[in-house]
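Hello,

Our lab assistant flagged a job as stuck in the queue for most of the afternoon. It eventually completed. Since we weren't sure the result was trustworthy after the delay, we are filing this so someone can double-check. Below is the sequence as submitted and the structure that was eventually returned. Let us know if re-running is recommended.
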Amino acid sequence: MKHYRPALSQTAAVRPSTLSAVLTWKRLAAGAVSFAVLVCTAAVTSAAVAVVPLSSATAALSGTAMTGSVLANNEPVVGADIVVVAWPNQATLEMLGDEQKVETHVIATTKSDVSGKFDIQVDPGILPKELVSDVGQVDVDVIVADKDHEAERSLSLLTTADGWTSAEVVASAAVGPIDLGFDLGTGAFQSSAVTAEDLTGDPELLSDEEGLALAPADAAGFSTTAVTDRGRIDTILRERGTASGVTPMEECYAIGTSTYQSQRAESFVIAQGVVNAKAKVTQGSGTSHSLGVAVNFGGGWKGSGSTSKTTSSSASQGDVATTRRYYNRVKYRYYTNSCGVGYGYRWRPYSIQELVAGYVLVTRITYPNSRCNTYDASYSYEKHQGRNTTYGTGVDLAQVNVSAQSGYNSDTKLSWPDFTGRAKLCWSSTAGREQSARVVAQVP
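-- returned structure --
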């Protein structure tokens, strides 16, 4: 691999963030039952897992933050405990000193019903301001447990005028709560963010570092989560007692250490141009990046969801006639726990340090003519909507690789601003160019 550090056109002007910048995934249609494959948050693993049937997607309710189901070896778990713990927002965590307590809060608890399904209700109006970002983002750990085992997942929730959604759910006409599925027997994890049907139509929604779509068996390996013996959730529930609403965690809390991993490459996008149609990569201020979280409960490091970080600068790189995987630079912080590793040590995203920091040359991508159009000189095009590819090994931490993804929007885009002659634009999805995770230029 050859690494390059391009000259950049970069500004530091901060603009207000927008929700469209952080809504990066497609929601299931109301009433649909899905078999989904998680593609945005897990670490690399080769284990194939059983498919978990998700609970039916529901219409957006003002207090419904998420829905889901808990299984054990594909059988519903009745009365499973579900706890949602919120972390401080990005600005608050950046001010946290070394070896200081992280002021996490329990914001919801519930139990699964006779079908193993659950519905998490959260009133955004009662959340302390330190938990909510400027764009209404709340970073949470979702912990589920049966009588013997427990598992958790990190994700970023979002408040909108229509209710709750998630940073993994793309903006649409009917944005609604994310739906999660846990199997405490097999370790399978599923999400309504991207379905098996989505991957069939556009396999490059999930790719490796070379930009190649993962085979179904490899993609299935991303839909797992760490399952441990039940323990942490009992401590949380005992401390909470009969309280409701938002309660601070005073026992077995996370600690922000002085240990960081800086300048870690975050795969962002593959830009492919040709002589007659050179590509340009642009990342704008206020863009949200979903970066993987790594957790260790004593049995080794594993991906365990993601949280979203927002940029405050912009950068671009043009005149691309080759095939390049561009990356940003990000910083991670190490968190321990006052009760030891059994309660989870974590590497969590801390900040985005540099945009369009460099690139790696990768193999040229070719799509069939059925997914291409030919254009003449003076044509231009920009890809500024839809889902970008998720790179399953998008951030290379010292302990484990975790995922990375950032959506397209009006300020973060891939473009071919000026065709100087005849060239083709081709795309990855059978649904068409606008719905594709990847668009490339090819020689006609």
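-- support follow-up --
The delay was a queue issue, not a problem with the job. The result is valid. The CA atoms of residues 61 and 387 lie 25 Å apart. The chain has two domains: 34-249, 256-442.
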